[in-house]
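Usage

Read records sequentially. Each one opens with the input sequence:
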Amino acid sequence: MKKEKQISKNNQNLPSIPSDTSIKEKQLVSADTSKTESSDTTLATKGTDTTKAGEKADTTDPYKGLSQEEKSRRYLEDHPFTTLFITNYMPPNGERTQYQRDVRFYNASQVPKGEYSFEIFQDVWNKFEAILKRKEVRALLPYDVEILPGAKPEIIKDNKGKEYKILSFYGLKRDPELTGEVITDAVATYDPTTNQPIVTMSMNSDGAERWAKITGANIKKRIAIVLDNLVYSAPVVQQKIVGGNSQITGMSSPEEAKLLKIVLKAGALKAPVQIVEERIVGPSLGEDSIQKGIQSLLLAALLVLLFMVAYYSVAGLYANIAVLINVLLIVGIMAAFQGTLSLPGIAGIILTVGMAVDANVLIYERIREELEKGRSMKSAIDEGFSKALSAILDSNITTFITGLILYFFGTGPIQGFAMTLMIGIITTLFTAILISKALFQITLNMGATNISFGQPKSVKA
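and closes with the structure output:
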């Protein structure tokens, strides 16, 4: 069996609570039947002991005298449903190591009290679920109970090395006793005593009060953490938890602890989550796409920067400084708003680099025209920035409007591209007009008499 998970108060001196939990669509659920392992009876008997008082259990073997092969064949024919899954049994008050794997009973009177857990091959789950949805089967189950699979299958191998995926499944109360909105924080960390991965969870005052009642009423029973109809964990409550600070132990790896932390935090989302786009990309393909996106960004920036220096000389160097500041501002703004730089976002930055240089080209061409008219360097720079301003504003405002349309009417990658583009337009106006001009003024104030714009002849300041 898997290593037992536990939930406890967030206190080193207090005992822990075993864990097997479930959050259903961002909900924290307390379920007496969670992983029917924790109930006193099996699901088949609906929580009641079918052996009447003073009555001896029927232990008759209906397949007595048959060969093992024939016995297995007959049993499969007679029990098409229960043979789909594995039933594990532990006697009342028994140790976790005393599980009996794949136990089978011939009739209801043979089902003893104790703790049960159920497992099923992942390939068979759809068939199992289809049977559960049948009207006649649904009528046998309590109306407030639903059966959900675990989120992460266990991988086992047979003697030939073939891998099989096994899912645990759980009987849960349909209506959650506590929603994820009461969770204020969840942290994946390590137990200072055992150095094992754990997850600490805290709740608000309302959640802490209700959590104390729930855990107090379900000691030695399981609680399930379910997200999107998948059970991510199901710990056994060891004690009543007051104060809202809990600790979940028993994770097999730090990655499992981090996943549970994410699930708990997802349950705390108050706003509904809508999937606007879904893609399945393998890790190698995703890494390759990111690398190519970054390479294209660096190559485009390098070519633009080299062109500016080659064509506009010293002035081109100033334009390059402004472009680099522009890119840093874009990244900084996205980081401040916790934005994600996706491939469409990288495309937006590349376009922004070109637009930023375009603004500098308009300014520099105006300055060169003024220099050819015989103006001094300072006068030509002032006049060049002044005359180019209207053209720069017109082109950037029209592009910004296009970005707004793409953002409000587009979805997924289109919105990411549009957002990066609009941020880039704002930073471009700032760097191309203010930063570039400031660099020229600083140079002139330091006593420089000539700045090369790539013009054919030298002009004095």
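Summary fields computed downstream for this record:
- Confidence is low (pLDDT under 50) at residues 1-55, 457-461.
- The chain has nine helices and 14 strands.
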